[in-house]
Inverse folding.
């Protein structure tokens, strides 16, 4: 496999074509952004930590029967994935109230959400990733009803798998965002799963171990990401 030209540079990752038209290289950079790109910083080790963390999670999900785009880790900061037609709809599940939900509805941070909630957001930075629903997605052609149904089932299945995985490391999976794409006609999990796109709290102290440390300027961002990995048995290079 040979890496060719840069196809797209996002806020945190760069995507490269390869000599195989079905495969892409994802390069996880140290760039970190929040608030729709209004707060941007480079955090040393973040690309490596997220790449290794994502590879670990994608492998666990694949083993548990979730179809993912992940093929293999290529280096500390790069992974090989299946090239997909991305569906521009982000799926968010929440087990505990935090972030946008607290702001929008004025509910107390930390209350358990039973059953967990499921929300859709349009992937559109210019418009600030607005919240949408199935009807809007269908009417505007962002996703078909069949794709949306599949995405919802898979997103909840991921919740079941990952809540248990993080619980083993004494962590609460508060909420998370997933992106899906289509590969050879099948709806497949894409992008990444890392502390950049989810909230994880220490189960006992409720200390934040995710990107909220960056959003809220709490410091120790990468230290927290590495702690999450360590608790799952991941070792990161020095
Ligand atoms: P955001 O941070 O809101 O997700 P972004 O575009 O800035 O947006 P990055 O993670 O920096 O995000 O860029 C990675 C890009 O690659 C995203 O647009 C993502 O949807 C896309 N992508 C991820 N996996 C695949 C895949 N398997 N095939 C094609 N594109 C992919
Ligand atoms: P949410 O609380 O709606 O937004 P915010 O990031 O503004 O606090 O997000 C819920 C979870 O989904 C949270 O873990 C962050 C993640 N998420 C993303 O990573 N990117 C997104 O574009 C969205 C909408 C959510």
């Amino acid at each position: 496999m040979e890496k060719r030209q840069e196809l797209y540079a996002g806020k945190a990752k760069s995507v490269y074509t390869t000599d195989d038209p079905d495969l892409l290289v994802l390069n996880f950079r140290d760039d970190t952004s929040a608030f729709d790109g209004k707060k941007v910083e480079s955090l040393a080790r973040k690309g490596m930590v997220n790449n290794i963390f994502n590879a670990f999670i994608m492998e666990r999900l694949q083993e548990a029967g979730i179809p993912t785009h992940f093929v293999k880790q290529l280096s500390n900061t790069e992974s090989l994935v299946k090239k997909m037609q991305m569906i521009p709809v982000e799926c968010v599940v929440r087990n505990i109230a935090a972030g946008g939900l607290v702001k929008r509805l004025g509910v107390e941070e930390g209350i358990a959400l039973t059953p967990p909630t499921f929300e859709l957001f349009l992937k559109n930075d210019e418009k600030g990733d607005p919240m949408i629903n199935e009807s809007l997605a269908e009417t505007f052609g962002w996703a078909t009803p069949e794709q949306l149904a599949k995405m919802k089932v898979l997103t909840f299945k991921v919740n079941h798998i990952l809540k248990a995985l993080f619980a083993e490391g004494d962590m609460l999976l508060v909420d998370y965002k997933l992106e899906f794409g289509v590969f050879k006609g099948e709806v497949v999990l894409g992008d990444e799963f890392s502390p950049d796109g989810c909230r994880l709290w220490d189960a006992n102290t409720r200390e934040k171990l995710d990107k909220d440390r960056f959003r809220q300027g709490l410091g120790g961002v990468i230290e927290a990401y590495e702690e999450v990995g360590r608790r799952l048995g991941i070792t990161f290079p020095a």
Residues 97 and 105 are 10 Å apart (CA to CA).
